[in-house]
Amino acid sequence: MTGVVVEFSHVGVRIQNNKALSDVSFRIQEGERWAIVGPNGSGKTTLLRIVNGYLRPSRGEVSVLGGKFGQTSLSEIRKRSGFVSSYLDNLVESNDNVLDIVVSGKYGATRLWEIPPYGDVQRAKLLLRQLNCSKFENRALRDLSEGERQKVLIARALMPDPGLLTFDEPCAPLDLSARESFLKGVGSIAKDKNRPSLAMIYVTHRIDEIPRCFTHALLIRKGKSLVSGKIKGVITSENLSKCFDINVQVKRWMDRLYPVVGN
Ligand SMILES: Nc1ncnc2c1ncn2[C@@H]1O[C@H](COP(=O)(O)OP(=O)(O)OP(=O)(O)O)[C@@H](O)[C@H]1O
Ligand SMILES: [Mg+2]
Q: pLDDT per residue over 134-175, tens digit each?
């Protein structure tokens, strides 16, 4: 039996009197890679904000990497998981340079308030090198293309050597070839033998984006979990049609999934 990385039990959250999530339950074990799929407004980003310690649930129970909400501080949760998201993109100061932004990931912060230890700077440089981003480590984040920013945010997310890496629609702004190169990068992080227990969550409303190495999926609709488990049993024509309220057939091609929409 492996360790539990994320557990949601009947989780709900209200934001400004709006039910952003009403009843979500699932459990992710070490090393598993989950796709979370659902229509616009179904609660996917809200769910990831909870997982990453940016939002507290209003009801139900959540634990992330051994920290139980209510008993562990949100900043502690933020240090344990890695978040790649345009939501975060809005939080980081776009005037800060790429190297500082990557180092800040170690502290679960979006800015550096002190001069960081030498070892942290060296680690950030190594991660940027591995992601082919060394050449712009001194540039401001706002001066990068969308594809480059996504890679920098991955380096930032890997900075604390997290047990969990989460992505929120990372391919939305990317063109076809940037998207495929990004998905290849996600695949190589997943297969990295130095991180055998790293779990991943990839949020999207496009099933053709789900990387090949993904093992499990959760379908979410109107703030509620619809079905969860091994990808093959979850992303079916029947389940996807129910989730998106549209007649859709799921086709498999070279271990990726594609939707074909009917009448
Ligand atoms: N700050 C907020 N204030 C009020 N309502 C919010 C807030 N954030 C989210 N919501 C509401 O919660 C629901 C879920 O939003 P969420 O952003 O989680 O959806 P999503 O599945 O990520 O959608 P998308 O695919 O469009 O990104 C929506 O109805 C949204 O309007
Ligand atoms: Mg969203």
A: 999 999 988 888 888 888 889 999 998 899 999 999 898 888
Q: Residue whose CA is closest, atom 17 of ligand 1?
A: 45
Q: How far is the CA of 19 from the centre of ligand 1 (A)?
A: 9
pTM strictly above 0.85: yes
What CA–CA distance (Å, rounded) separates 5 from 44?
Answer: 18
Ligand 1, pocket residues at CB < 6 Å:
15-16, 18, 20, 38, 40-46, 205
| Superfamily name and number for 4-261 | P-loop containing nucleotide triphosphate hydrolases (3.40.50.300)
DSSP assignment string, 34-83: EEEE--TTSSHHHHHHHHTTSS--SEEEEEETTEEBTTB-HHHHHHHEEE
